[in-house]
Amino acid sequence: MRQIVSVTSVDLPESRVTLNVEVLAPALERSISRAADSIGQTLRIPGFRKGKVPAAVVISRVGREAVIDEAIRADLPTWYAEAVAEAGIEPVGDPRIDIGELPEEEGKPLGFTVEIGVRPEAKLGNYTGLKVDREELDVGDERINEEVERLREQAGRLEPSEAPAADGDTIVMNYRGSIDGVDFDGGTGSDQVIELGSGRFIPGFEEQLVGAGKGEDRTIEVTFPEDYQAEHLAGKDAVFAVEVTDVRTSKLPDLDDSFAEEMGYENLKALRDDIRERMTESEDRRIRATFREACIDAASEKAKIEVPDSLIQGRASEIWEQTVRSLAAQGINREAYMQITGKTEEEVIAEAAPDAERSLRREATIAAIVEKEEIIPTDLQLEDALEHSAGHEGVTPRELLVTLREDGRADQLEKELAARLAVDLVEESAKPNLIKPKKD
Question: pTM for this structure?
Fold first, then answer.
């Protein structure tokens, strides 16, 4: 790969560094050319077709400085990532970037500085043979029974009922809502299906329908919550005239071999055995993951690690931004989440501070163990780690590893695997102190 930047690093107090970065002239000119092409897509210049204006003409028309500005806007994230990789640092939080003077002539580099927090360093104490709590693996009959009951409820069928509606029953209703005797928008519905006790309606609404029978009319009085999504209703008292048109109760299948056969099993024992096996595998994974974290936490407690508040704040902000991206994937934006939780961003970030500090201490401890133990993953270990990805891409693990190295993308894999091997070392030498599982 062609070198894009050159970097020198200056250490600052409180786990921060300044990177003095130069975008090398050849790389900068390539970026400027791409930026000129992009600007040229929108220019109309006599004698040239739209989108076909040469870079030199674009630069002459709009000015070299404007084109460099566009190049910076497009390529600064790449230059920053290259600088971080070249410096060999693990950044924490948002960088502060200052762009230097723009080069007026071709063949000159572009300079900029980056100030950023970096992972703290750990002075290791003892990290092997540590006594660490570990949950006992216990998947008892009670949990199996709960899962079987959940499956029965899923398989239940709604049947008409002449009895008064009870919690858990489903009713069908027509309703009309009013405030101070005046109907309001969205307050009328027909053939509305609701499960009593589900909590889907306004607080207090479902509770007042318990005991209602088919064909019965009821008057329901409620108060809309202060944070109700329809602002014109929030905090207001309302009255609903409800007609119950049907009551249905869930008929659960008998707990016998026939039920198990409907679920795809030979008999009830086979169903319970399968549930136990799956639960045992799941619990074993959870317990081991928790134990591994506890092992590293124990090692970090033995180490000397200074974690400045600025780093904790930076990592907490990163955790929050990860949460925002995860919520966006579920169709929930930042503002909606703030409204649901009733918290400000500052409060959410502050609540993430303990997790942020813990993660920084773990990372510092793991990195120090990797260095002290001189852990360097072998090609065989790297290929084992790539087996799933290679299968997905239809190549051998060896071929995928070669490709990653050719593209300069193997370093991150090697770092992640080295960290995993360091945790393995601490875990395998630890002395588990078995404790009873916590009751939910």
Answer: 0.78
